[in-house]
Amino acid sequence: MPVVVTRDLSVELGGRTVLDRVGLTAEPGEIVAVQGVNGCGKSTLLRCLSGLLRPGSGEVEVLGAAPSAYPAFWRDVGLLAEEPAWYPGLSVREHLALVALTHGATVPVDRTLDDFELAARADVSPLALSSGQRQRLALAATMARPSRLLLLDEPEQKLDAAFRDRLAAMLRAYAGTGGTVLLATHDAALVAALDATSLHLRDGSPARPA
């Protein structure tokens, strides 16, 4: 059964058509990269898939049902969108420990810190991190817990080239265990490294790459 399906998905915001009859299917173990210029509808599509935005028309199915605000949906779906609101009184390590406790993650926090190159900054507040380090922490909080689907909005932002390669390896490993990844990205090299299926949007509609 497909993990993600959209049929004739359309969204209008402020009198402007943002998505226009978008059809998409993502299978278990598949990585789908949504590409296009700023404003083409990439983030809007992810918001519809996460249930944060209701489409004007068409259908959206995630894990066999409509996206839901209930915890059962979010136990299976990891979302990276805007930077989280960090708790100033918790360290980097404590943020990841909280995620692990809440979601029943089996990966030790110390391993996650190493994987995302945060071990040297584990005991500081996230607010003391650089922008690239905070992006790695947001990715760690999203990816270090159990899930069946990752929705990632420009996960490559603020990452250096070496860590982008590392992220590609992590996402390929996730897909290799049957997880599905759907990411919005401008990074053609990342798409190639992921061997991802590409969905190109132009003015909200699926389009062939130029």
Task: Label this structure with key terms.
210 residues; six-stranded mixed sheet; three-stranded antiparallel sheet; 7 helices; 26% strand
Please give a quick description of this structure.
32% of the residues lie in helices and 26% in strands.
**CATH homology superfamily name of the largest domain:** P-loop containing nucleotide triphosphate hydrolases
Strand content: 25-35%
- Give the strand line-up of the largest sheet: 5-6-7-3-8-9
Largest sheet: 6 strands, mixed
Architecture per CATH nomenclature, i.e. the level-2 architecture of the largest domain: 3-Layer(aba) Sandwich
The radius of gyration over CA amounts to 17 Å
How confident overall, as mean pLDDT? Answer: 94
- Low-confidence segments, ≥5 residues, pLDDT <50? none
Helix content: 25-40%
**How many discrete structural domains?**
2
- Shape annotation: globular
What's the CATH C level of the largest domain? Answer: Alpha Beta
Q: Can you count the beta strands?
A: 9
Describe the structure.
The protein is an alpha/beta fold and 210 residues long. The protein folds into 2 domains: 1-76 and 147-210, P-loop containing nucleotide triphosphate hydrolases (Rossmann fold, 3-Layer(aba) Sandwich), CATH 3.40.50.300; 86-146, no CATH class. The protein has helices spanning 42-50, 71-74, 92-103, 109-115, 131-143, 161-176, 188-194, and strands at residues 4-13, 16-26, 31-35, 57-62, 77-80, 149-153, 180-184, 197-202, 205-207. Strands 5-6-7-3-8-9 form a 6-stranded mixed beta sheet, with helices on both faces. A 3-stranded antiparallel beta sheet has the order 2-1-4, covered by helices on one side.
